[in-house]
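chain below, 68 aa
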Amino acid sequence: MSDIVNAIDGDSLYNGCGMGLNECSKTQPCPMHDKFIKVRKEIKEMLTTTSVYDLALGLKSGKTVLMR
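prediction:
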């Protein structure tokens, strides 16, 4: 899933500011910077370890849905 997200949205999810600011870094952090580092890492891990096949299995088994 990580490759798909990166192809569609680029790497801003992994590198961008959690508040959407143009400039955000360790030396000039936004108010959410330190907290967002943890969230960003968890999102990257989740997307890296989840495949399209995993999603399809959930749909096929009825454990997940795409429409309500």
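The chain has four helices and no strands. The first helix runs from residue 2 to 9.
thats it, cya
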